[in-house]
Write a structure and sequence with these properties.
The complex is a heterodimer. Helices cover 0% and strands 57% of the residues of chain A. By secondary structure, chain A is mainly β. In chain A, strands 2, 4, 5, 9, 10 and 11 form a 6-stranded mixed sheet that branches. A 5-stranded antiparallel sheet of chain A has the order 1-3-8-7-6, with no helix packed on it. The radius of gyration of chain A is 13 Å and the shape is globular. In chain B, strands 2, 4, 5, 6, 9, 10 and 11 form a 7-stranded mixed sheet that branches. Chain B starts with a strand and ends with a strand. The interface between A and B is medium-sized, with 19 and 24 residues.
Chain lengths: 108, 110
């Protein structure tokens, strides 16, 4: 099945810093989503981005499907950005497969 | 618009007990899924359904059963709970703009 690899596994930032999270995948996809799991365990859908670039406030994401990677950018990080960021994707009608996530800690 | 609703939110079971987790969606989605999340790991697929009356096994189906009698509901059953089934369970449905997840059920088996 499709493989999903996220990096880095852990990241510590000072409040106000910028960061880039990466997701590599092994096959062509027709759905790719970025989720934020907050400290209370809720999964928040950040982006539906099988290709191209999207922005939402301080967050943006880019997927280069032909090179099989996606990037999540966080600018001017805040303590509320802390949590785990998951990349998840699927091809065709196969179910969504999750990476192991990047754990982000933003320190005031 | 509630999206995906899971009940209960928390539950403690004794080994050998049974229970059913309910997932309900109000978006008229055909596809529904049950995942489990263990500490330090991503979500792993237990079972899924591509429409009313259908079910299929995912990556970690052992010890679980599912039913999709109505399009809006997807039930996950544990017939004889084991400590290895202590986990957080997430339900999801899939529409044209990707997956929508419920808020999770935290299950502890003692």
């Amino acid at each position: 099945g499709i493989q999903v690899e996220q990096s880095p596994p852990d990241l510590i930032l000072q409040e106000g810093a910028n960061s880039t999270l990466r997701c590599n995948f092994s096959d062509s996809v027709n759905n790719l989503q970025w989720f934020h799991q907050n400290p209370w365990g809720q999964l928040i859908n950040l982006f539906y981005i099988p290709s191209g670039t999207k922005q939402n406030g301080r967050l943006s994401a880019t997927t280069v499907a032909t090179e099989r990677y996606s990037l999540l950018y966080i600018s001017s990080s805040q303590t509320t950005d802390s949590g785990v960021y998951f990349c998840a994707l699927n091809s065709g009608n196969t179910p969504l497969v999750f990476g192991k996530g990047t754990r982000l800690s933003v320190i005031a | 618009n509630a999206g995906v609703t899971q009940t209960p939110k928390f539950r403690v079971l004794k080994t050998g007990q049974s229970m059913t987790l309910l997932c309900a969606q109000d978006m008229n989605h055909e596809y529904m899924y049950w995942y489990r999340q263990d500490p330090g790991m991503g979500l792993r697929l237990i079972h899924y359904s591509v429409g009313e009356g259908t079910t299929a096994k995912g990556e970690v189906p052992d010890g679980y059963n599912v039913s999709r009698l109505k399009k809006q509901n997807f039930l996950l059953g544990l017939e004889s709970a084991a400590p290895s089934q202590t986990s957080v369970y997430f339900c999801a449905s899939r529409g044209g703009r990707g997956y929508t997840f419920g808020s999770g059920t935290r299950l502890t088996v003692v």
